[in-house]
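Take a sample.
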Amino acid sequence: MSFHVPDGLVPAGRDLRAYTDELRPDHPIVRNDRDEWVLLSHDLVRRAALDATTFSSAASRFRQVPNGLDGDEHTGFRDALDPLLSAESLARHVPVFERVATELVAQLPTGATLDAVGQIGAVFAVRAQSAWLGWPSSVEDRLLAWIGENYAATRSGNLARTRQVAEDFDEIIRTVLAGRSPDASADADVTDQLLAVTIDGTPLDHDDVVSVLRNWTGGDLGSIALCTGVLVHGLATSPALQARLRSGVSDAEVDAICDELLRRDSPFIGNRRVTTCPVDLDGVQIPAGAKVKLHWTSANRDEQVFDDPDVLDAEGNAPHNLVYGIGKHVCPGRTLATIELRTLVRALLAGTETLELAPDAEPVREVAPVGGWASVPVVLG
C-alpha cells in the first residue's frame, strides 16, 4: 500500500530533505493531496526513469521541447539538439566562462556578507548563459529580476502567477530572437546555431525554438544559482574539502566533488511523469493516467544505496548518483552545468584565501517545490 501525506508533500515549515528522509524507509511510495504518486526510493525512481514507455514525460498541459516529449519525437529532438550541448561544442566557450567567473569574483567585496545564491550563483548563471547563447548584456537585469520572480511564483503554487512568469520569460526570448538568422557554422553563436537546427530536414517552428530556449535558460539559470548555494555551503562548512580543492586537483576530481555535494543536497527535486498503463510497483497498484513524481532528492539520499547519505564519497557514490537523471530523459544540459559549476568553484577558490559562512547571518533552506538553499550568507577573505 502507498502512504498518504497531506499538504502536497511537505508540511509547511518542514525541511524537504529531512521529511523525505523520515518517510522513505517505511514508505518508498507516497500519495499526496495533488493526487501524485511520489517515488522516494532510489530503486523505484531509477526503474521509472528507465521505463520511458510506461512512465511518459508528456505530463504538462503545455508542449515542452525536448523534456515533455516521448518516443521517436523525443529522440529526434535530442539527436538534433544534443550536439550543441556536447563537450566538443562547449570547449570553445570554456575560456569565456572562465573570464566571466574570474571577473565576477574580482568584483565581489572581501570581508562583507554576501549571498552565495543571489549575489554569486544567479549573477554568474545569467552572465555565463548569456555569453554562451550570444545574448546581449542588456538583458542581464531582466533575467536576474526574472529569477527572483520565478522563485516566488514557484513557491506560491499560484497557477496564474506562474503562467505570467512563463509569459514574461517568453517575451525576453522573443526580444533576443528579433532580427536573428539561422547560422550553422561552427563559430556562430549558439542561438543562431539553434535557429539552423532541422528535424528530418524541417526547421524548428518558432514556438519550439522558444520552448528549447526556455528549457536551456529558464530552468538552468535558477538551477545554477541553487547549485552554487549548495556547493559554497559545502565548501564553507568543510575546511578539509576546501583545502583539498585549493591544493590543485584535476578537473575530473572537481567535477566528482561537485556532483557528490549535489547528490547529498540535490536542488533538482523531481520530474513529473504520467503512466500510460496500469503498473505494479512492488505491490503498489498505480492506474493508467496517474500523475507520478520521480523524487531525485530523496532517491539520492536513500540509505539502502548510500548508507549514510550525508557522508561524502565522490568515487564510491558516483555510479548511483542521480543528480542529472538517468535514461532517455537524462538532463541534456548536464555537461554545460558541470563545466559552469567547476569554473565558478575554481574562480572562487583562486580569487580568495578563505571562504566562510557569515558569522552574523544563518543560511536559509529553500522550500518545496524548490530544493537546496534560499540563501547562503558567506564572507570571502
About this structure: The chain has 16 helices and 15 strands. The mean pLDDT is 92.
